[in-house]
C-alpha cells in the first residue's frame, strides 16, 4: 500500500459500520443542524477533556475568533503569539483589528515560553495564545503564573494536541490540554487526531459565563431567537459531523496510543543518526504526536525530503516561513526578539508520516530510507549508521 502522510481511508474502514450507521441515523432524522448528536457530542467531549463546557463551531479558526470575541478584546489590543505556528493563530487577531505580537519559541518543544512572553508585554497587551504545537503542551504552569500576575487572558490553541495532558510540577495536578487557560480552542479538520469528515471546531472553558458568550456569538449574537444582544457570526458544527466525531471520540485514546507507538519506533530507528534530532518530550506534558517532526541539518533538509519523495515516502515542512516574514503580517504585527530559534526551525524541521494506521513494515521502510540517505550523504553520520547496521546484523 502507498504510504500516506495521514491514512484516513484505512482508519475509516476499521470503524465503517459504526460510522455508516451514525450517519444514516442523521439522514433518517433529517435534523442536520443542531440535532441531538451535536448536544451529545459536546457533552461527551467535555467529559473526556474534564472541562465544564464545550461549544462546537464550524472550524478551528472560527474557534479562535469566537474566543477572542467573547473576551471583548478591542481594536489595537495586543495579543502575543509564537512566530512558529500556522497562520490561523495570527489571522483572526488581525481580522478583529488586534495586533499580533510575534515572539520566539523553545527550540526543543517548538512552543512559546513564559520568558518570551514576558519580554513582549506592554500596557496594550491583553492576551496570550500558547500553541500546543505538534502534540505536546507549552509549559503552562509558568505561562499561567505570569499571565495571572500581569492580568492577561490565556487562549490555548489546542488544534494539534487534543488528548494530551499537562502535569503541574508544583501540585502534581493533571489537566487536559486546552482546559488550562481561560478558553481552549481546537480543530476537527480531517487530519487532526480527532478529525471529522469535513470542517469542524470547538471552544471549551470552565467558565460558564464565557461559554454562554461564545455560544451566543456563534449563533448570530442571539441567546433567544430574533433577539440579537451582540454582533455575532454564524459558526456551527453540523449534525452529520457531530455524529462522526461521537464515534471517533470512542477511539481517541487508542488513536493516541497508536501514534505514540509509531513515534517510539521512529525514535529507536533514527535516534542514533548524527546531526538528526528526534522529537523532544517535555516531562510536564504527554505527547499525542499530531506530527512527528525531526530537526535535520539545514544543508540536508530539502535534499532528504526530495530523496524520500523519490522513494515513495511523503514528508512535510511545518512551517517553512515564520509568521514575521509573511507579507500579510509584516505591517500588521509586532516582532519581539530576534526569533533565532524560529528561523532555525523553519530551515530544519521535517515531519514524517504519522497516523493511526502505520504498519511495522511501513515504519521500517521509512526509517530505512532515512538511514540510507545519511549513509550516502553525511560523512559524519554514515560511520555511525554503518556501525549500528553491522551490530544489528
Map the helices and strands:
Blueprint: H1 8-14, H2 16-29, H3 36-49, E1 53-57, H4 60-70, E2 78-82, H5 88-95, E3 99-103, H6 114-120, E4 125-128, H7 140-150, E5 153-157, E6 165-167, E7 174-176, E8 183-187, E9 201-205, H8 208-218, E10 222-224, E11 227-228, H9 239-249, H10 252-270, E12 292-295, H11 298-310, E13 334-335, H12 340-348, E14 349-352, H13 360-377, H14 379-392
Parallel strand pairs: 2-3, 2-4, 3-13, 4-5, 5-8
Antiparallel strand pairs: 1-9, 6-7, 8-9, 10-11, 12-14
Walkthrough of the structure:
The protein has 14 helices and 14 strands. The chain has helices spanning 8-14, 16-29, 36-49, 60-70, 88-95, 114-120, 140-150, 208-218, 239-249, 252-270, 298-310, 340-348, 360-377, 379-392; strands at 53-57, 78-82, 99-103, 125-128, 153-157, 165-167, 174-176, 183-187, 201-205, 222-224, 227-228, 292-295, 334-335, 349-352. The protein folds into 2 domains: 8-249, Aspartate Aminotransferase, domain 2 (3-Layer(aba) Sandwich); 252-392, Aspartate Aminotransferase, domain 1 (Alpha-Beta Complex). Helices cover 42% and strands 14% of the residues. The chain is α/β, with parallel strands linked by helices and 393 residues long.
Quick rundown:
This protein has helices spanning 8-14, 16-29, 36-49, 60-70, 88-95, 114-120, 140-150, 208-218, 239-249, 252-270, 298-310, 340-348, 360-377, 379-392, and strands at 53-57, 78-82, 99-103, 125-128, 153-157, 165-167, 174-176, 183-187, 201-205, 222-224, 227-228, 292-295, 334-335, 349-352. It contains 14 helices and 14 strands. The chain folds into two domains: 8-249, Aspartate Aminotransferase, domain 2 (3-Layer(aba) Sandwich), CATH 3.40.640; 252-392, Aspartate Aminotransferase, domain 1.
